[in-house]
Amino acid sequence: MYHADVAFNAALDMSLETWELMSYVVTVIGLPLAIFVFLYEQRKERENEEEEVYQLLSDNYQDFLKVALDNPDLKLFSSTISAHALSEEQEERLLIIFTMLMSLFERAYLLLYEDEMSDKQARRWNSWEDYIMEWCCKPHFVARLPQLLRGEDPGFVSYVERLAKQSQP
Known about the structure:
Number of strands: 0
Largest sheet: none
Helix content: over 70%
Strand content: under 5%
Structural class: mainly alpha
Distance between the termini: 103 Å
Radius of gyration: 31 Å
Protein backbone atom coordinates (compact mmCIF):
# COMPACT_ATOMS: atom_id res chain seq x y z
CA MET A 1 0.00 0.00 0.00
CA TYR A 2 2.79 2.37 0.92
CA HIS A 3 4.50 1.67 -2.41
CA ALA A 4 1.29 2.55 -4.35
CA ASP A 5 0.95 5.85 -2.46
CA VAL A 6 4.55 6.80 -3.23
CA ALA A 7 4.07 5.98 -6.91
CA PHE A 8 0.81 7.94 -7.02
CA ASN A 9 2.39 10.97 -5.31
CA ALA A 10 5.39 10.83 -7.69
CA ALA A 11 3.03 10.70 -10.67
CA LEU A 12 1.02 13.56 -9.22
CA ASP A 13 4.19 15.63 -8.65
CA MET A 14 5.35 14.92 -12.21
CA SER A 15 2.00 15.85 -13.63
CA LEU A 16 2.01 19.12 -11.63
CA GLU A 17 5.49 19.86 -12.92
CA THR A 18 4.33 19.06 -16.44
CA TRP A 19 1.33 21.36 -16.10
CA GLU A 20 3.50 24.10 -14.69
CA LEU A 21 6.00 23.71 -17.56
CA MET A 22 3.17 23.82 -20.10
CA SER A 23 1.77 26.98 -18.52
CA TYR A 24 5.18 28.63 -18.87
CA VAL A 25 5.37 27.55 -22.51
CA VAL A 26 1.94 29.03 -23.18
CA THR A 27 2.89 32.25 -21.41
CA VAL A 28 6.26 32.62 -23.11
CA ILE A 29 5.37 31.39 -26.62
CA GLY A 30 1.61 31.12 -26.98
CA LEU A 31 0.56 34.53 -25.70
CA PRO A 32 2.97 36.54 -27.87
CA LEU A 33 2.03 34.34 -30.83
CA ALA A 34 -1.67 34.97 -30.21
CA ILE A 35 -1.04 38.73 -30.04
CA PHE A 36 0.96 38.61 -33.28
CA VAL A 37 -1.78 36.65 -35.07
CA PHE A 38 -4.44 39.06 -33.79
CA LEU A 39 -2.49 42.13 -34.99
CA TYR A 40 -1.76 40.50 -38.35
CA GLU A 41 -5.45 39.72 -38.88
CA GLN A 42 -6.42 43.26 -37.88
CA ARG A 43 -3.95 44.73 -40.39
CA LYS A 44 -5.17 42.40 -43.13
CA GLU A 45 -8.80 43.33 -42.39
CA ARG A 46 -7.95 47.04 -42.53
CA GLU A 47 -6.20 46.55 -45.89
CA ASN A 48 -9.25 44.70 -47.23
CA GLU A 49 -11.52 47.53 -46.08
CA GLU A 50 -9.26 50.11 -47.74
CA GLU A 51 -9.27 48.09 -50.96
CA GLU A 52 -13.06 47.84 -50.84
CA VAL A 53 -13.40 51.61 -50.37
CA TYR A 54 -11.03 52.20 -53.30
CA GLN A 55 -13.00 49.78 -55.48
CA LEU A 56 -16.34 51.40 -54.61
CA LEU A 57 -14.94 54.85 -55.43
CA SER A 58 -13.56 53.53 -58.73
CA ASP A 59 -16.95 52.08 -59.56
CA ASN A 60 -18.54 55.46 -58.80
CA TYR A 61 -16.07 57.15 -61.15
CA GLN A 62 -16.97 54.65 -63.88
CA ASP A 63 -20.64 55.51 -63.30
CA PHE A 64 -19.77 59.20 -63.60
CA LEU A 65 -18.01 58.56 -66.90
CA LYS A 66 -21.17 56.88 -68.20
CA VAL A 67 -23.16 59.99 -67.28
CA ALA A 68 -20.59 62.14 -69.05
CA LEU A 69 -20.77 59.94 -72.16
CA ASP A 70 -24.56 60.22 -72.11
CA ASN A 71 -24.20 63.99 -72.55
CA PRO A 72 -22.01 64.40 -75.65
CA ASP A 73 -23.48 67.81 -76.45
CA LEU A 74 -21.69 69.23 -73.37
CA LYS A 75 -18.27 68.23 -74.75
CA LEU A 76 -17.09 67.32 -71.24
CA PHE A 77 -13.92 65.63 -72.46
CA SER A 78 -12.79 68.53 -74.59
CA SER A 79 -9.63 70.33 -73.51
CA THR A 80 -10.63 73.54 -75.23
CA ILE A 81 -13.51 75.88 -74.62
CA SER A 82 -16.11 75.47 -77.32
CA ALA A 83 -16.84 78.44 -79.57
CA HIS A 84 -20.58 77.94 -79.22
CA ALA A 85 -22.33 79.07 -76.07
CA LEU A 86 -24.26 76.55 -74.05
CA SER A 87 -27.99 76.90 -73.68
CA GLU A 88 -29.41 77.48 -70.22
CA GLU A 89 -30.44 73.81 -70.00
CA GLN A 90 -26.99 72.64 -71.11
CA GLU A 91 -25.28 74.93 -68.60
CA GLU A 92 -27.47 73.53 -65.83
CA ARG A 93 -26.67 69.93 -66.82
CA LEU A 94 -22.97 70.79 -67.03
CA LEU A 95 -23.02 72.28 -63.55
CA ILE A 96 -24.86 69.27 -62.12
CA ILE A 97 -22.40 66.85 -63.72
CA PHE A 98 -19.40 68.84 -62.51
CA THR A 99 -20.94 68.97 -59.03
CA MET A 100 -21.29 65.18 -59.10
CA LEU A 101 -17.63 64.92 -60.13
CA MET A 102 -16.44 67.32 -57.43
CA SER A 103 -18.44 65.42 -54.82
CA LEU A 104 -16.79 62.19 -55.93
CA PHE A 105 -13.33 63.79 -55.82
CA GLU A 106 -13.96 65.13 -52.33
CA ARG A 107 -15.19 61.74 -51.12
CA ALA A 108 -12.05 60.11 -52.52
CA TYR A 109 -9.90 62.78 -50.85
CA LEU A 110 -11.57 62.32 -47.47
CA LEU A 111 -11.42 58.52 -47.60
CA LEU A 112 -8.07 57.91 -49.28
CA TYR A 113 -5.77 60.89 -48.85
CA GLU A 114 -3.40 61.16 -45.90
CA ASP A 115 -0.28 63.22 -45.38
CA GLU A 116 1.67 60.07 -44.50
CA MET A 117 0.73 57.13 -46.74
CA SER A 118 2.10 53.65 -47.24
CA ASP A 119 3.23 52.75 -50.77
CA LYS A 120 -0.05 50.95 -51.40
CA GLN A 121 -2.13 53.90 -50.14
CA ALA A 122 -0.05 56.32 -52.23
CA ARG A 123 -0.63 54.23 -55.37
CA ARG A 124 -4.37 54.28 -54.75
CA TRP A 125 -4.41 58.02 -54.12
CA ASN A 126 -2.17 58.82 -57.11
CA SER A 127 -4.78 57.44 -59.49
CA TRP A 128 -7.31 59.89 -58.02
CA GLU A 129 -4.83 62.72 -58.20
CA ASP A 130 -4.38 61.88 -61.90
CA TYR A 131 -8.15 62.10 -62.43
CA ILE A 132 -8.32 65.47 -60.67
CA MET A 133 -5.37 66.81 -62.66
CA GLU A 134 -6.91 65.57 -65.90
CA TRP A 135 -10.07 67.54 -65.19
CA CYS A 136 -8.09 70.57 -64.04
CA CYS A 137 -6.62 70.72 -67.56
CA LYS A 138 -10.08 71.36 -68.98
CA PRO A 139 -10.83 75.12 -69.15
CA HIS A 140 -14.61 74.71 -68.81
CA PHE A 141 -14.06 72.77 -65.56
CA VAL A 142 -11.43 75.15 -64.12
CA ALA A 143 -13.63 78.15 -64.94
CA ARG A 144 -16.30 76.75 -62.61
CA LEU A 145 -13.96 75.70 -59.78
CA PRO A 146 -14.80 78.64 -57.48
CA GLN A 147 -18.47 77.70 -57.63
CA LEU A 148 -17.81 73.96 -57.39
CA LEU A 149 -15.46 74.26 -54.40
CA ARG A 150 -17.78 76.46 -52.35
CA GLY A 151 -18.60 74.72 -49.05
CA GLU A 152 -16.19 71.83 -49.57
CA ASP A 153 -13.62 70.57 -47.05
CA PRO A 154 -10.91 73.27 -46.65
CA GLY A 155 -8.05 70.79 -47.05
CA PHE A 156 -9.65 69.45 -50.22
CA VAL A 157 -10.20 72.97 -51.59
CA SER A 158 -6.52 73.84 -51.07
CA TYR A 159 -5.44 70.57 -52.64
CA VAL A 160 -7.59 71.04 -55.78
CA GLU A 161 -6.61 74.70 -56.15
CA ARG A 162 -2.93 73.71 -56.00
CA LEU A 163 -3.45 71.00 -58.63
CA ALA A 164 -5.39 73.40 -60.84
CA LYS A 165 -2.54 75.90 -60.72
CA GLN A 166 -0.02 73.18 -61.60
CA SER A 167 -2.17 71.98 -64.49
CA GLN A 168 -2.48 75.35 -66.19
CA PRO A 169 0.03 76.18 -68.95
